[in-house]
Amino acid sequence: MRSVTLLAMRVPFLDLPAQYAEARHLIDPAFQEILEKGAYVLGQWNQKLETDMAAAHGVKHAIALNSGTDALRIGMQACDIGPGDEVITTAFSFVATIETVVQLGAIPVMVDILEDTFDIDPSLIEAAITPNTKAILPIHLFGQLAAMDQIMEIANRHGLIVLEDAAQAVVTKQNGKYAGQFGKCAGISFYVTKNLGAAGDGGLLLTDDDEVARRAKSLRVHGMGRERYYYDEVGYTSRMAELQAAFLHAKFQFLNQWNARRAEIAEIYQAGFAKAEFGIPVIRKGNESTWHQYTIRHPKREGLMAHLKENGIDSAIYYPVPLHLHEPYAHYGSGAGSLPVTERVSEQCVSLPVGHHLTDEQAHHVVKTVLAFD
Predict the structure, then answer these.
(1) pTM listed for this prediction
(2) CATH number of the domain residue 127 falls in
(3) What is the gyration radius of the CA atoms in the chain, in angstroms?
(4) Residue 2 — very low, low, confident or very high, per pLDDT cuts 50/70/90?
(5) For residue 364, what are the domain limits?
(6) How far is the C-alpha of 144 from the C-alpha of 168, rounded, in Å?
(7) Is residue 352 part of a domain?
(8) HEC string of 212-227?
(9) Which one of 51, 103, 171, 249 has the largest count of C-beta atoms within 10 Å of its C-beta?
C-alpha cells in the first residue's frame, strides 16, 4: 500500500459558519423579532416554513416537527402503523429508520440494497411480503430517490402503504416528482449536517393526505385535538421552535443555489474518478441528486481515510455497521451474511466533502489525493 503526501490544502467536510455568514442578514432580524415579541412556539415562522416546504415539494401539507426521527415516527403512527405490523425497509441507513418502527411496536423487515445506488433492491421486496406486511419504507439515501416507480407498483398491487424516508432528500426529485409525492407521507430531517440544516434538530412531515396531516398536527402536541387540553390519542412533544423555523426559512432561500454548487463539486469528482477502479456514485435514470453525500466504495477504506487526513481532507463513514448487526435490532434480522451487499458496502463506503462551500481547487485536490493512493 502506498500513500503519497501532496501539497497541503485544508478541505473540511462541512462549513456551518460559512452557511450562517451567507444567511445572517435574514436570520439575525428574524431572531430579534422573535425574541422581542416572545412568540417562541408555532408562530408565523413555522407557518412560513410549512407553506414554503409544501409548495417546494408539490404537496398539500407540511408539518414542522422537532426532528427527522419524529417525522418518521409521527408519520407512521398517523398512518396506523402499530404493533405486529411488518414494515419492509433496509439495514443501510441511520438508526432512526428502524428505531421508529420498533418504537411503535411494528416489525422492521430488512432486505438487501443495490450496490451502485445504495437503496432498497426492488426485486427483493415481494419475497419479503407476508400477511402481516403493512408498509414499505424506502430510504432516499445520500440525496437521490429510491426506485419509486417499481416500489409503488409493488405496493399498489399488494395494497401496502408506502412511507418515504426522505431525511436526506429535501427538494429532491425523480422524473419531475419530488420526495413526498410518491408515498402516503415522507419524513425530512433538518439536522445540522443536512443540505438544509437547523441550528440543532428539526424535521418535517410531507403529505397529501388530509387525515394524516390532521393527526400529525395533533400528535406533535401530545395528541391534543381541536380543543385545548382535550386529547385524541397518545402523542409527543414535537413542536418546532420558532427560532429554528426562522433559521431554516432563511437558509431555504439559498438552498437551490447551494444544491447547484454541490452538483458542480460532484461533477468534478465524477469526471476525475471516471476511470478509477473503485466504486463511484451512480445516479438512477430520472433522478436529480441533491448530493447530500458523495460516497465511494473503496476496498482499502481505512488506509484511504488516513491518507486523506494526512493531506488535510476530511472524510466520513455512513454507515460503518448495518442495522441488522447492532444488538438492539439483531433479532429482527438473520445475522451476518444475510444481507451480503449491505454488509460489503458498509465495509467499503467512505464519503468525501461535497459541501457548497468548497472551491474547484479544493475539489480537484480531493481527486488528486484519492487517485494518489493505492
Answers:
(1) 0.95
(2) 3.40.640.10
(3) 21
(4) very low
(5) 255-371
(6) 8
(7) yes
(8) HHHHHHHHCECCECCC
(9) 249
